[in-house]
Every structure is written in C-alpha cells, then in structure tokens.
Write a structure and sequence with these properties.
- There is one protein chain.
- The chain is an alpha+beta fold.
- The chain has three domains: 347 residues, Rossmann fold (3-Layer(aba) Sandwich); 148 residues, Peptidase S8 propeptide/proteinase inhibitor I9 (Alpha-Beta Plaits); 150 residues, Sandwich (Jelly Rolls), CATH 2.60.120.
- 17% of the residues lie in helices and 27% in strands.
- It is built from 14 helices and 36 strands.
- Strands 3, 19, 21, 22, 25, 28 and 30 form a seven-stranded antiparallel sheet that branches. A seven-stranded parallel sheet has the order 9-10-8-13-15-16-17, with helices on both faces. Strands 20, 23, 24, 26, 27 and 29 form a six-stranded antiparallel sheet that branches.
- Helix 2 crosses helix 14.
C-alpha cells in the first residue's frame, strides 16, 4: 500500500483547486546529594535559646541563620567535626526535633524554551486555549513536567521517526539527531548495512514516491518543498531539544532521534506526500537493527500488507507507535493500517518471539474531547493523546504578498485594467468589518461592467518551494456575473480558479488554493476579476481582505514553527513518552513500557468505549507504573512514628544482640552514640550540666555512663552524664 500522512495544518493544503479553509533541556534529575558542611535543625517546641546554644556547642556546630521560622535553623559543622558525629549528637539532644544534612534538588522541570507556553499537550493551563481554541481544560495534557522531574530523556535512548524526513539545520532538532556509531563520512558502507554514510539515519524513498525504483541513501533530510515538513513536525513533538532557550521542547527532550525518510512527493498528486510500503518495511527493519527503542509512524491506509506485519513482528525489541487515522470513523468497521495490525497473531508464517509491539493512538483536543477528525476503535485503538492545535518544528512559509488594506497604498500596490475599477473599501461596505477591497466601493457596479485588478509584481527567489494564495472573500451574485482569480508568473498564468457561486451568510469566508509550484526565480503577481450581471445593485459584487501569497522557503532557511492537527500529532506525544520511560528504566522491555503507557492513562469520558483504555496519555503516571516511586518517610515523620509507637513493641526490633556498654568517657555525644550503636546498645537519658549565669558551657563530652563500661543491661539502654570538655592547657615559652 501507499500510506498517507495523517496531519493537517491550521490552513491545510488539500487536493482541489481551492481548499476548504475551515481547518484551521531541563537537566536530568540528579542522584540524591547532600552537603558535607551544612545541616538543617528543627527545634523541639518550647526550647529556649540557652538549650539550643548548648545543643549546638555539644554537637560542635555553628548557627548560620534562621530559615524563615524560629523553629528552623541552618547550622554549619565546625572544622574537625564530621557531619555524622554532629547529626548523632543533635539527634540525641532532647531540644532537637529534626536534624538532617542540607540537600540539593534539581532546577524546576519547566524548560525555558520561548514557546513552551503554547505546548498545551505537555502542560495545559486551561482558560482561553491555544491557537484560537475555546474552552481549554486545565490538566487535559500528558503531564510532562511531572515526568521531567525524574528524567528528560537519555542520549543513550534512540527513538526513530519513520516519516518525510528531518531538518538538521533546526536548532531544536540538530542537537538531538542520532549518530550511527558504526559509520563515518567517507563514502563507504562502514557498518555493512548496505547504506553508504548513513551517519544520522537513512532515506528509503528518494524524491518521487511513484518512481519505478526507490533509491536508498544515507541522507534523511526532508528537502521536499512542495508537500514535505510532516516528519519535521512529528520529530519536534517527539524530542525537540529542551531547556535551551529556543523555540519548543519535545516530550523526550534529551533522547536521540533517528530520522528514517519513507514519504516523498507524489508525481500524481503534488499536494500529497506518499509513503510506499516497501520503504516502510525497510525503515522498520533499520530501526530494529540499529537499536531504536521506539519508532513513530504517523501514517496509514486501509490496505492490509502481510510483509509489513511480518516486519513489525520481526522487530519485537522496538515499540511502534502509530496514528489511528483522520477519517472520524470507527476502525472496527474499516481497519486503518498499520495501526490496527496485531503482529503476534497476524504474522504469517508465525514469527518466533513476536509480541504486541504496537500502540495505536487517537487524537484529543484541549478540553479532553475526542478530536472530530480522529478515528477510534474499542479494540484497535489503544489510547488518546493531544493532537489538535499542536505547535512543533516546521519548514518556514514566507509571505511574498500580504495586504490587509489597512495602509492606504492601494494605488501603488494594485493596478486596474477593467472598464471599472476596484478600490479600497472601508468597514461597513458590504460585509467588511475593516478595510478591504471591493469592485465598486460604496456603489453598485455598472451593468455588465468588467473589473480587473492586479497586484504589483514581486520577485520570488530561486529555490522557493510551493506557494499558496489565501485570503477572505464575499461574493453576492445578484443578477449573475462571474468572478475568478489567478496567479501570474512572468505575466503568464500559473494558476487560475473560477468562482461563480454566491457566498452564504453575511461574513467574508476564508479561502486558500492548492499548492502552486514553479514560481521560484520568477516575477509573480496576483489578479482578481469580476464581471457584473445585467442589473446589479449595491449589494452585488466581490469583497476581498487579508490577501496573502505564501511560499515554502528555500532549504537555506532553517525551519521555524507551525500549528498542525491530526492523529499524526497525537502519536509522537506517545513515542516521546516511551522514550522517557526507556530512559528512566533502560532495562525495561517493550511489553513493560507498552503496558505502562496503557495502564497509566487518565480516564476521559470522550474515550470511554472508543479506545481500549478509555484514557488519554499521562506520561508521569505511566512512569510510576513502570517504576513505582519509593515512598520514604521524612525524618520528622520517622521520629513521630517512634515517639508514638508502643515502647514494648519497640524493644524487640531495637535489641538484636546483647548490649555490652563500651568505654564512653571523654567522647562527644555523637561519638558516644555511634559507639553505643556499634555495641548493640541504645541511648537512654542524657544529663547535661547547667551553665552558670553569664557563662557558656562550651563543648560537652561524656563524663560517665549508667551502667558503667562492661555492663550488660537487659534493656540495652545506657544513660549518659555530660560535662564540659576541658580547655587545652596553655604552654608558656
């Protein structure tokens, strides 16, 4: 089968002459780390300053500052004292409720990428919504920041993008491109996989998807300036470099992306990139052979292909994440492949080791609704993920002509050649709510009059890709008449569209054309023409506004960003999530990650009965399913548990061996506590001397113990009496 891509831009390019315009690195969390010199003390209630000072002196720590509350204090361990001994002394002092070493956290996991706030699929704050969506619901997202607290992806984890190709010149994509460890740039096939210089992926389709033979090379660059860019967009959602102050971030913002080009322009339909099944099979095997842990396939069709099923089955070490389709239909009624394949049962002949290594993804919107275009299936579609108004990396489209008529330069920007003249019209003229253009501003056109207006010529640089003419228009037919518009290249017609129908309603309607090719390197202009009927009125004619000729920029222009929508945009959210899970648990199997992704969904009403799980992706929960977090009580909680426990029940676990009281005289409280623990004893009551008024006690040491050294108390408890540490004698010379 020739699969097609499953995405639509906000201003989608379709197959007709005129298209329906209604479609609209944070650092990895570090390992636990503690200060060797600073500790945090929480004082027991009703302790006074003298008790606190004595506890610090006994532990040989110094006050640094209070921590916003008198009960919390930062202290510094004195030179020559160890953190362990200081903490042991503090723990044994009744004035201290909690004593812990100062520790470190990672910076906030929200990345500093300039357009992160528009990535609602990663973090949805609700409110007005993104890109014109109304009624966004806070939390209708994949909960990426919570997952990033545990990992932002590992460079050792590779996720493949089986699509239209990649743009290495993108600041978001270049730094995270996979590098083939077995290949060097020398014109040779160093790793023996049959592809020369496949340093960063491979191209399995070439420039024409309809060619009789499909060339293979080591450059997966998306150089299709007619109908390309789809893979650039999916790659950005999967794993665009994050926290670099540029553009966007992907879900797995520090994993490595393996671009595999399988879709190219179709000579039969220049508006459509097509993806040969043979190219897909080659890419599937390449991804598996080269170690991709997950692979995104935002493409599909309705033709079953046994070889493709077998290729998926033969690569059980890779999780394939596939878009469900954009027909707004039930996949149970008409299967959408490869999303609906089940390799473990459909491989023929059966493949040893085949597993269910496919995740099929529907699209949800900013309010957790099932997107109107998205396919679904109670047994064939696994889960949903954000897929509407999705911002990601995309080739730049440059406006060569743009006129909203707000500036009064009509006479220089446009020229008339008909029997009557077009002109600049103001708000209130017909359906206009702002300035625009009309065939006869403020009056009725003359009977059978001809109105032709042409824009000033503009130079479109050589190397420019396909162009689209767009705008808003309103036409009232009245007594008949005709209307057409065309794009001229060096004075000759490059595109023409005749519109004879009357606009419904009372407002201007958006329009845009099919892709217009071949304008690069030529002088281009736009022409509109209206011919009135035999008896027109003032309400008859054509009104135009927001006219724009937009062209795909040459390859010398790095990609920018664009909003697209489709299940193509939903699938890479899940692929990136798989990349995070494999990064967090490198030993995880495909089956374990797949189960975690499906088990960890957030249930949403719109997917109930429409997908296997009835839920939308939550990568943070999925990560916890794969690796349940270890719940450790805080020091305060632990001490409270000990204080509230039944003392009789505490004796057995504390006394594991007979206590023999060690020699403790002269030791600091911390040293004595450590010695008691080593001797299987526990610290009992601690008696400190009282300081005389106006005098400091200074550091304290053990003066005596009860019972004395060598004793074997049945309870295991040893009480200590402390005394001031003798001051060193002064030596006179």
């Amino acid at each position: 089968m020739l699969a097609t891509l499953l995405a639509a831009p906000a201003m989608a390019h379709g197959a007709g002459a005129e298209q329906d315009a209604s479609l609209a690195a944070a650092p990895v969390t570090p390992a636990p780390s503690f200060s060797s010199s600073r500790a945090i003390v929480e004082w027991a209630p009703r302790t006074d300053g003298t008790e606190r000072r004595d506890a610090r002196e006994s532990a040989e720590v110094e006050s640094v500052r209070m921590l916003g509350d008198a009960a919390f204090q930062l202290v510094r361990v004195a030179p020559g004292q160890s953190m362990d001994e200081a903490l042991a002394s503090l723990h044994g002092d009744p004035s201290v409720l909690v004593a812990e070493p100062d520790s470190f956290s990672a910076p906030n996991s929200i990345p500093n990428d300039t357009r992160f706030g528009e990535l609602w699929g990663l973090r949805n704050l609700g409110g007005a919504g993104i890109d014109g969506f109304s009624g966004a619901v806070a939390g209708a997202d994949i909960d990426a920041p919570a997952a990033w607290d545990r990992t932002v992806g590992s460079p050792s984890v590779v996720i493949a993008d089986i699509d239209t190709g990649y743009r290495f010149d993108s600041p978001d994509l270049g730094p995270v491109a996979w590098t083939n460890p077995g290949e060097t740039a020398n014109g040779l096939d160093d790793d023996g996989n049959g592809i020369v210089d496949d340093l960063h992926g491979a191209d399995f389709v070439g420039p024409n998807a309809d060619a009789s033979s499909l060339p293979v090379d080591g450059d997966p660059t998306d150089d299709n300036l007619i109908s390309g860019g789809h893979g650039v967009h999916t790659a950005g959602t999967m794993g665009a470099k994050g926290n670099d102050g540029v553009g966007i971030t992907g879900v797995a913002q520090n994993a490595r992306i393996m671009p595999l080009r399988v879709c190219a322009n179709s000579a039969k339909n220049k508006n459509e990139a097509r993806c040969p099944t043979s190219s897909q099979i080659a890419a599937i095997n390449y991804a598996g052979n080269e170690g991709a842990r997950a692979a995104n396939m935002s493409l599909g069709g309705t033709t079953f292909n046994q070889a493709l099923v077998n290729a998926l089955a033969a690569n059980p070490q890779t999780l394939f994440v596939i878009s469900a389709g954009n027909d707004g239909e039930d996949n149970e009624l008409e299967h959408h492949y490869p999303c609906d394949y089940t390799p473990q049962t459909q491989a023929s002949p059966p493949v040893v080791g085949a597993i269910d290594n496919i995740v099929c993804v529907a699209a949800t919107n900013q309010a957790d609704g099932l997107a109107g275009f998205s396919d679904w299936g109670t047994t064939s579609v696994d889960l949903g993920a954000p897929g509407t108004e999705t911002l990601s990396t995309y080739p730049v489209a440059e406006a060569k002509l743009s006129d909203d008529f707000e500036t009064n330069n009509f006479a220089t920007a446009w020229s008339n050649s008909g029997s009557e003249s077009f002109g600049r019209a103001s708000a209130g003229d017909g359906p206009l709510t702002s300035f625009g253009m009309n065939d006869s501003p403020g009056q009725a056109p003359a009977a059978n009059s001809s109105h032709v207006v042409t824009s000033a010529g503009l130079s479109v640089p050589a190397g420019t890709g396909a162009c689209t003419l767009s705008g808003r228009r309103y036409r009232s037919g009245g007594s008949g008449g005709t209307f057409f518009y065309e794009v001229l290249s060096d004075g000759s017609q490059a595109f023409r569209n005749a519109i004879s129908t009357t606009t419904s309603g009372s407002a201007l309607e958006p329009f845009h054309t099919e892709l217009i090719t071949g304008l690069g390197g030529h002088a281009v202009s736009v022409r509109f023409a209206f011919t009135a009927g035999p008896s027109p009125t003032a309400s008859d004619g054509i009104w135009l506004d927001d006219i724009a000729l937009t062209c795909n920029a040459p390859l010398s222009t790095p990609p920018g960003y664009e909003f697209l929508q489709g299940t193509s945009m939903a699938a890479p959210h899940v692929t990136g999530a798989a990349g995070l899970l494999f990064s967090r648990v490198p030993s995880a199997t495909v089956s374990e990650v797949r189960k975690a992704l499906l088990t960890g969904v957030d249930p949403v009403a719109s997917l109930a009965g429409k997908t296997v799980t009835g839920g939308r992706l939550n990568v943070s929960t999925a990560m916890s399913v794969l690796e349940p977090p270890i719940e450790k009580p805080s020091f305060k909680q632990a001490e409270a548990a000990i204080r509230n426990a039944n003392p009789a029940a505490m004796i057995a676990p504390l006394v594991l061996a007979a206590c023999t009281v060690p020699k403790l005289a002269g030791k600091t409280l911390g040293q004595a506590t450590a010695a008691l623990t080593a001797a299987h004893c526990t610290l009992g009551a601690v008696t400190k001397p009282k300081a005389r008024k106006g005098h400091k006690l200074g550091a304290l040491i053990v003066n005596s113990s009860t019972p004395a050294a060598g004793a074997h108390p049945a309870s295991g408890k040893v009480d200590l009496t402390l005394a001031p540490k003798p001051k060193p004698k002064k030596h006179h010379h």
